[in-house]
Amino acid sequence: MSSGLERLKKEGAQKIYETTHISRQNIEAIFNASYAGITKVQLDGFISILEREYKVDLSAVKADYLSCRETVEENKKTEAEPVEIFTNSPKQRRSLILAAAAFIVVIAALITFPGDDNTSAAIEVNESVAVEAVIIEELNATDENLTMDEEVVFTPSEPVFPEKLVIEPKAKLWMGYIDLKTLQRSQKLTSRSIDLDPKKGWLLVFGHGYFKIHIGDEVMDFSAKGKVRMIYEEGQVREIDSAEFKERNRGNNW
Question: Which among 67, 93, 193, 201 would be 20 to 30 A from 123, CA to CA?
């Protein structure tokens, strides 16, 4: 266990929650290395806050998270390996039906040999035609089922976004925000809360770090001097450095 994590455990989940507003559930999950409900984006955001607030190094937690994530992915691949099962597939059914048709025709030919009366031969021929009609109908139904199966399209589920994204300044705050899709820039100097569209992606830059971010029901509390840069994507926010900010903003600092 890293010394940084040991220090946080001594501090206690409740006290850390009161200071950072990271939920106790997520703090205890980090303490217990139980990452099932935490995405990488969330973990990066939590660690960024904890490292800045408590001046600790949590790189070991990141490494442990990635190791656990690789193990889970490997297990999923193993579980997803196909198991060969012998079934009566549509192609197999088609072959069996054709074989049955050929067999019936041969039997009909054998029993309608010369010497039979015309009535008997006619009955055999009619029965053979009726059976062939049933076989053709079955083949057509099989072809229709195959076509329907080929046309099935699976549509990926839409991502779930929080209901709100609100920046709440603790003091008068300059804030710049950039739409990640259009790169359209806006800025405000205000003491009031700023509402952004939670379904969009945003590059965020703040003149100081004394503010709160409300994402749905979760509240992230920041208290830092100097300029702060962040990125909001797919319902999650994390702190970034100036290099990543410029990379996502076509090389511009703002």
Answer: 93
